[in-house]
From TrEMBL:
GO terms for molecular function: DNA binding. This is HTH cro/C1-type domain-containing protein. It comes from the Bacteria. InterPro entries: Lambda_DNA-bd_dom_sf.
Amino acid sequence: MDISNKELRNAITRSGLKYWEIAKEIGISASTFSVWLRFEIDDTKRKAIEVAIKNLEAKRGY
C-alpha cells in the first residue's frame, strides 16, 4: 500500500516536527492537516507545508 504524500511525510519525520506543529504554523487544525495528507495534495498546499517546515526548523536552529 502506498502512503499518500510519502516524500512530504518523510520530510516531516526527518525534521523531528510533529504534525500539529506544522498545522499550527500553517494556520489550520491538526485534524485538517491529517485530512490533507490522506490524498495527494495540490502544489499550493504542498508549498505551504514545505515553508512551514523550513520556518519551524529555523526557529529551532536546525
